[in-house]
Each structure stands twice: as structure tokens, then as C-alpha cells.
Amino acid sequence: MENFINKLQSHIDHVKRVGEHCSTEETTKQALILPLLDILGFSPYDPTKVLAEFAADFPGVKSTERVDYALYCNGQPVMFIEAKPYAANLTNHAPQLSRYFNSSLGVTIGAITNGKEWRFFTDLINTNVMDEKPFLTVDFTKHKAEELVQLAEFRHDNFHVEKLRYFAEENQYIQQFKTVIKRSINEVDIDFVRYVAQQAEIQRQLNTKFLETIQPFVKQAVEQAISDTVVKGLSSPTIITAQTIEPKPEQNAEQVIDHGFKDIVNSDNDKIITTKDEQELFRIVSELFPESDLSTRDTESYYSVLYQNKSNRWLFRYDVNRKRPTIQFNINIDDQRKLELLRAGLEVLTNGQVYLDKPEHIYRAVGILKDCLEYCCNDENFKRASNA
Predict the structure, then answer these.
(1) Please, what is the Cα angle at 126 between 123 and 128, to 5 degrees?
(2) Which of 96, 186, 195, 290 is 20 to 30 A from 352 in CA distance terms?
(3) CA 288 to CA 286: how far, in whole Å?
């Protein structure tokens, strides 16, 4: 992940330096769009990964219209990209992308870009119909590299349709909630004042006149509460906290399919029970890394996923024997990885363990999982440990 962030930083500097010189669509493609695809592992020189001027029999689309780029995984198109000149307003061109998207049943991600801004779309509202609003917008002229860890979700070796839909739905809800919360805090409208007064159990009739009277007090309380929270966070740098994501209605990508798992009691030790959640967790990880030689080992204390069935090469240890299940990865959760997990809505403990309330939440940590697998695959890591 550190290498990926460094490449993004170099690309951000490149966009800021040459962007204004990209006056045509073709120049924008060559100078700004294709370099990012290469960073994501979609080599523009490999037609099995990137196909330019993609043409297909799209119902309702003119035969002369072509998608600028179709990205491929495992021989199937997974994402369409519509390119525009650097100075173009992307809003005016989204309908063109939606025509391609709506006519192709196999592609669930679409993007439109002018090289500096990328807007990513999917079909959360109506299946096979591209949403009007993007679930993720990235502007390389405004964001820092460490703020763009979400782009790792689109890497070729990390591209997984189900995981991306989950990410898209989660991101869309969070952005909508943030908008409402910011508006409520900044404006402190009457509905927000009423909610605060009710929660504070104010012993008064909460009519409009009274709410308008206390409105300035609530605004002042909000400002002080935010200030107190910031000061507390700065004074306690070693304590890592994150807002817990409330469960969302079970729909679309977040809806969990019942695979018929049942708790399995070890025949030699009835204290070892492989739970349904543990089995589901391994199913997801195996699906994310189908080419890897992974196996599991269950003990009374924790459930491990191993590489090549070697006990010292475990990717993670999952503990469901607590009030809230935790997962411990085999790599150091440094500040950069902590930031990645926090931005994904996971809560990191001071000892590096992470709360994993549901097996499907592992989708939020695929980048960390990949780092764990790479660590296990590197024999040098274990030779040094052996010599030590």
C-alpha cells in the first residue's frame, strides 16, 4: 500500500504540472488517464486488460459510438471509462456514459474523467441502470495521496465486483449522512434543536417559540462539543478511535447470502467450534484470492487463515470469543494502515487488532489482506525470523 500511495503522489504532482497543457481529449488520455490506469495495474499496453475504443452491440447506442476504454479482468469487461479533455465539465457528459452502462449487463462500474477529476458510478438504485450521482469523486488537484486510498479498490489485482458494490453503497450512504449532519450542525435548524432538547430531556413544552429561544444555545453547545472532541483527540494521539458504522438495511451489495454454513464441533475437542461466521470469512477471503494456496486452522483461542498450510505463515487470526469479534493481521498496523482502516469505517485498537463485527466487513480491508498475503509469500521474511 505504501508503494501505491507513493505512485499516487507522483501522479498528483504530474497532473498539477502538465494538466493545463492537455487541451485535447487525446492528449488528456495519453498524459493523464493512461498513467493512472497503469498505476492501478491495468496496463494500457496489454489489450487483455485495457481495450481502447470498445465497440459492442449496445441497444439504443449508435454504431459509431464507442466507449473510450473497457477494463478487463479474467477475460471479461468490468468497467467502462469515458474520457474528456482536461477543461471539460464532466456533468454535461454523464448521460453518454450511462447509455453504454445501461446497455451492457456485464459491467457494473462506469467512470468519466477529464484526467484531473474522476467520477465513479454503479447501479445501486436500479439494477443495470447507472445511478445519476457518482458513489465516489476524486479530484487530483484537491486531494492528497493519503486521502485517496479508496482508489486501491480499483486495482486490477484487487478488483472484485461484489466488494466494489459493497464499497459503493457504503460510501454513498456515508456521504449522504455527512451532508445532512454538516447541514444540521452549521444551520442548527429547528428539527435539530428539537432532537437535542428531547435527548437532553428538557422539561418544557417544545413548541416553536421555545425552540427558537434555545436555538442559539444549541448552536453554541454544538461548537463547544466539536471543539472539545478535537482537543481530546489531539491530546490522546495513542488512542485510535473511529465512528462505528451503524448497520444499514440489508439490500443490494450488503445483503448477505446464506451459504448454509453450520457450526462445526471438533470431534477431538468439543471446545473448538468452527462458527458460521468463521466459515463465511474464509469463503470471502478464498474468493478474493482464488489463486492462492490458503487453508484454515481453528483453536480454542482463535481461527487462522494460513498460506500453504504452514502454521507460521498465517494471514490473520480471527477471535469470535469476545463481545465484539476482533481480527489480528500478520503485519504491523502502522499509521498509514490505521488511516486506511479508519477511513473504511473499521475500529482499530491500540494493540493493532481490529474489530470485525461481521465477516463481510473484511471487504473493507482488502488492501491490508493483500499486504498480509505478500508477506506470507516472501520466504525472506521467514528466513530472517529463523536466523534470529
Answers:
(1) 60
(2) 290
(3) 5
Taking only the tens place, the pLDDT of each residue in 67-85 is 889 899 888 888 999 999 9
Going by their DSSP bridges, the two strands 354-355 and 326-329 should be labelled as: antiparallel
**Matching CATH number, 2-159, of 3.40.50.360, 3.90.1570.30, 3.40.50.12370, 3.10.20.30:** 3.90.1570.30
Q: What DSSP string runs through 312-376?
A: T-EEEEEE-SSSS-EEEESS---HHHHHHHHHTT--B-TTS-EE-SSGGGGGGGHHHHHHHHHHH
Distance from C-alpha of 284 to C-alpha of 35, rounded to nearest angstrom: 31
Cα–Cα distance, 347 to 351 (Å, whole number): 12
- The model's pLDDT over 238-297, given as tens digits with 9 standing for 90+, comes to 443 334 334 444 444 344 455 678 889 888 888 899 999 999 999 999 888 888 899 999
Q: What pTM was computed for the model?
A: 0.54
CATH class of 252-387: alpha beta
Can you give the pLDDT at residue 259?
Answer: 62
Residue intervals of the chain classified under CATH 3.90.1150 are 252-387
Give how far Cα 159 sits from Cα of 34, 61, 79, 137, 163, Å.
Answer: 18, 27, 10, 18, 8
